[in-house]
Amino acid sequence: MSPSTATRLQDLMVRAVENGTGTQPAIPGARVGGKTGTAQHGLGNTGAPYAWFIAWAQAKDSAQPAVAVAVVVEDAAANRTDISGGGDAAPIARAVMEEGLRLEAEGR
């Protein structure tokens, strides 16, 4: 991937967290980029969909992300139509990224 394409992708992922479908993992004092999604499951899509969220986070004063995560929730406790990556998987991603940023701040 070219550097300009990578920069554009990062910008789009940040926009998804700041103003789009992935607002739940926003972390005060950090730059967070992410992408939400759901995946069909089961023969003929008869199973509950999987909720997923991919993301990265970096401290505002850092030159690069400290942590990147991919979360898949296979058995969301919600009605089929309410399952979403932004609602079910993103809060888990946020907790992991917060811990990664905390460890980076401590120099670990």
Description:
Pfam families: Transpeptidase (PF00905). One of its GO terms (cellular component) is plasma membrane. The chain is of the alpha+beta class and 108 residues long. It has one domain: DD-peptidase/beta-lactamase superfamily (Beta-lactamase).
Radius of gyration: 15 Å
Overall pLDDT, averaged? Answer: 90
Distance between the termini: 30 Å
Order of SSEs, N→C? HEEEH
Count of discrete domains = 1
Show unreliable segments: none
Helix content: 25-40%
Number of strands: 3
What proportion strand? 25-35%
CATH class categorisation: Alpha Beta
Outline:
globular
Query: What's the architecture, going by CATH?
Result: 3-Layer(aba) Sandwich
User: In the CATH hierarchy, what is the superfamily?
Assistant: DD-peptidase/beta-lactamase superfamily
Secondary-structure class: alpha+beta
Compute the number of helices: 2
Q: State the strand order across the main sheet.
A: 1-2-3
Which topology does CATH recognise?
Answer: Beta-lactamase
| Main sheet properties | 3 strands, antiparallel
